[in-house]
Amino acid sequence: MSRLKALTLVLLAAIIFSCNSEKPKQxxxxxADSLINPNPxxxxxxxxxxxxxxxNPMEMALILQSSGFTYSDxxxxxxxNIKNYTTNFQKALNIGIYGTDLIFMNINDKTSSAVSYIDNxxxxxNAIKVGQFFDHKTLNRxxxxxxxxxxxxxxxxxxxxxxxxxxxxxxxxxxxxxIGVGTWTESMYFALKYQxxxxxxxxxxxxxxxxxxxxxxxxxxxxFKNNKDFxxxxxxxxxxxxxxxxxxxxxxxxxxxxxVVGGNLTIQDNSTSTVNISKECITNLTKIxxxxxxxxxx
Amino acid sequence: xxxxxxxxxxxxxxxxxxxxxxxxGDELLDICYPKIGDYxxxxxxxxxxxxxxxxxxxxxxxxxxxxNGGVKYKIVGCNANDFEGKLVISLYNGDVMIGSTYDYxxxxxxxxxxxECKKSGVYYLSFYFRDGKEGCAICILAQK
Lengths: 298, 144
Fold this sequence. Notes:
heterodimer; A: mainly alpha; two-stranded antiparallel ribbon; two-stranded antiparallel sheet; 13 helices; globular; B: mainly beta; Jelly Rolls; 4-stranded antiparallel β-sheet; disordered N terminus
């Protein structure tokens, strides 16, 4: 019996100490804002692996740029809208929206309003206790490198990476997912303005290829759908996923060719993928993405 | 009673390792960034793994990554000096490994992988430290 008591004590102590090490006090304050983790059926590690699959907005921005996409300030979310974001749910989503806008502004050399967007990101990030990734040091680095677009993009993107990695380390995956949903939705919103580009075919293909990402996001949101805000967003992504079912992607797998160039291992892919997406499907995707974005930013 | 405290200490050690694994890679990222050269930064993966148990294979971390056809990627890694472990990065298409920064057959190490992607889709990046040693490293994915 005394052994049983000792074992119970050990397990109790282990659980208490384990929980304390993974959930710092500041999380409890944030959880009060109806962002409670409802005991997801998958492990934190599995969630983390899926979150990393959400593309960085830089990828879409670079494709749009190389396709002759014409950027317009009317595409981005107004920085005045920040006043609408009162819950941590809205704040996390709009960190992703503003972060993507910032990247698109920088890549298109439209840096005049960038400071307001950085301020907004910092304010929203402070509210969810991750403002340290856009601190004075970071802002100074951005100012010092303002003429070097690559450096600015690196500082911005790596700041976002550090912020989401930190949230994952703190087991605040719900917020990390929302930032990813914000960045992806805004990237898609830009991509669906493809009519302004010279080479539209590549953008349409890229929109179709996002099917795999939409499926992952729908699954990630389903994990937290016990929360009413997550549930509403999840329902929108179910609609999006259903529309994406009309996109057909066919693959051919062929062994790659490898060689060593300049010390690096260079791999030439010999596999291919073909995207089949109809005009009707693009129209429907545009409607759904616009609806999701409007709900996020307003 | 001493025994109980000993068991509690061991249990805390076992269950409380999450905190030890956190906060790695911040400075490494800036140090490693120049290695991508004229490629553009896309994403980073901080890797912090414990030493594997004797006789067991190295601990592996694996992440899904969506790569796009028509894009050239560069994948580089940098190790923290304070740890013995040397990072090995491998790129997978499903279960098939298409390249690795370390070729066991010839004992050759590569500083990075350049991948000219033609098939868009979900790939996997897997990470481990050679000989299962404890390590801290950063991996950067960049594109042209």
